[in-house]
Amino acid sequence: MATSSPSSYWQVGKTLPECFDHVFTSGIVSDVTFLVGEEMERISAHKLVLMSRSPVFYAMLEGPIADKGDIPIPDISDETFKLFLRYLYTDSIDLTLRNVVPVLNAARKYFVDILVSHCEKFLASNLSSDNACLFLEQAHVFVMDSLKSDCLRFIDENPTAALTSEAFTDLCVSCVTSITESDDLRVTENNVYEAIIRWAEAECARQNLETTANNKREVLGETLYTVRYLHVDEEFLLGKICSDKILKPDDVVEIINHKRNKKPLISKKLMTKRRFGNPERFYRNGPVINDFWNAPVDEAISFKTDSDVHLFGFGSFFTNVTQSTVDLKVFEEDVCLVQANKTAEPSQPDTPHMGDVLLDTPIPLHAGRKYTIVECPSNPFRYYFTKGIAKVTNQHVTIEFSNSSRSRHTDTDWGQIPYLLLS
């Protein structure tokens, strides 16, 4: 009787995972069959392997209530189920951005926690502007707190693409709120408002509601008030927001009275805190001289940054004992981005002679572009600095200052505008 040589046996020279992969692929000695996906494809497996890896399979395949005969699995595609089963046999899987979410769903369904963790780490390491909202929703549904935090942190730092993506409008209201309530979301309030309105329109469509102002307000609920309306451009507030009629008229009146007349807020829903946390002060001044500066004229300084940051405002010396009112302009190259009248108020106990001039909305600054701040006080300044610093580094961001032709006296060596507020 002829016998095969040892080298012809499929087990020879293979590791345990390789042998199990062959057993799964060939289907030899299989003892359970699944009908998978819409096409009910027959996929064979081995009870011992499945029960040893999953408590759900153990309950399905063992004991008095075990399933008999072929087992239908209609909610997982045949491609995903094969990939999932092969992992149970071999402890190995080739995850991609296309298959990771369906594999994660299968791993959660069958309580294969080690594969859930593997998928979660893969998602976190492959976050992008295109998928951050999709992964956030998955993390929310499956209570993956670590991944959810990673997604929110990524969106905070890369908000524009995420807020304008189609996936943002597909989020549940809880996930939308978790994004828009963040103090660290690096985007203007105008953008946040436009994003939640896009989401509200999509949600109305999902609920078969007319896209009226009342319905959009209803589906948004408290999410409507995650916009920091006190820091929205007034032109945008009186134009876009008022014309949408989603924010209630009483809220608009209260916001305007607070912005223009400093009246205290009544509504607890209106958030006063700015985003981005506390901006850093980039000081460029040397010793401060207590002496009257020149007559009120334009004082300016130009600068470039080596990183993309946001300008919250700048420092100003006082024209009287406690404050200074200035007209300001901010230019990008020769284009005026902002023109306003602002009051500087004391901000640091150790510098009682200067205060912050805060913009209504932070301005995004792009690395390598030249920006210029111009201020003109209503009265002569009481202070100025000497021995200025031309290059300042703080928190790994470098600002390089230069003289501006728009300035009457101030330059890199002395004068006004002692610091910038950046985040």
Automatic annotation (TrEMBL):
Localization:
Cytoplasm
A GO cellular component annotated for this chain's UniProt record is: cytosol
Domain BTB, chain residue ranges per copy: 30-97
Q: Name one Pfam family in it.
A: BTB
Q: Does the keyword Cytoplasm apply?
A: yes
Its chief place of residence is cytoplasm
Entry superkingdom: Eukaryota
> Keyword set for this entry?
Cytoplasm
Is Cytoplasm found in the keyword set?
A: yes
Q: Which InterPro entries match?
A: BACK (IPR011705), BTB/POZ_dom (IPR000210), PHR (IPR012983), PHR_sf (IPR038648), SKP1/BTB/POZ_sf (IPR011333)
In which organism is this protein found? Answer: Mizuhopecten yessoensis
Gene Ontology terms: biological process: neurogenesis
Q: What is this protein called?
A: BTB/POZ domain-containing protein 2
Q: Which SUPFAM superfamilies match?
A: POZ domain (SSF54695)
User: PROSITE patterns, alphabetically?
Assistant: BTB
